[in-house]
What we know:
Elements: H1 3-27, H2 33-58, H3 65-88, H4 94-101, H5 104-116, H6 124-138, H7 148-170, H8 177-199, H9 204-209, H10 211-232, H11 238-245, H12 247-260, H13 266-293
Helix pairs in contact: 1-10, 1-11, 1-12, 2-3, 2-8, 2-10, 3-7, 3-8, 4-6, 4-7, 4-12, 5-7, 5-11, 6-11, 6-13, 7-11, 8-10
Protein name: EamA family transporter
Membrane topology: Multi-pass membrane protein
Main location: membrane
Amino acid sequence: MTQGRANLLLLVAGAIWGLGFVAQASAVGNVGAFLFIGLRFALASLTVAPLAWREARLARHRLTRRDYGSFIFIGLFLSVGSVLQQMGLATTTVTNSGFLTGLYVVMVPILGVLMFWSWPSPIVWPCALTALGGIYLLSGGQLNNLTTGDWLTILCAVFWALQIIFINRLAHENGRPFMLSFVQFLTCAIFGFTLAAFMEPFNWPSVMLSWPAILFGGVFSCGIAFTLQAVGQRYTSAPQAAIMLSSEALFAALFGAILLGERMTVHGMIGCALIFTAMITVEIVPALRNRADA
């Protein structure tokens, strides 16, 4: 797969996640954050299980215990980030959540340097800042009074960034993206159900009331989108992947306007343009440089 096609998969994942913000917000108040995470990732596990089984049958080499341990480790970052994002949506807006989650765009290269002294291509830095500026404008540029939900979402972005980094460092070479997805989804489901059993009451009527959001979150936002991420990241760098995935904020604003009646401001339109500029630049400049070197 070419890097361009991989980045296109990541863009599709961002679009699905953008729509997922609307679905997640509709479930807040009806289902506890831990139970919601458990239910949607259980559905995600079932969605990707046939692909993981087929991948295992066709694989030339078996995965080791270390591989599975790495997948579980990555799944824990996804678990904590998902819970923090869902809890944050209780006291922040969909738009603010989209912006603050998008902070992982800048956190990925920064944490990569701090943790592993891994310096990205120079073009990544201005593109990351451009994308972040675009996400900020999509929020309306009004984040003066951060709520508890805002801070939880900022912390969520840290775990999102770590998940992206460790997919590239621990799961990049084994060529088993579907098994990675299955194991990390199963880890999230067990994580959510375990905490829900001790910390949240179970109310079946409330679960049924939120079943469309749970179904979309499980099958599409998790099962399909995170699998697209796992596949796409095999053929691109972590910083470039973060920039492509940052399109979720753009799509969150778009679907918020279509489904929730939210109107796109002039600032929001400029923000969309900046995000697209960042995504196109991070794709085209390295390709032109490689062609010139060849």
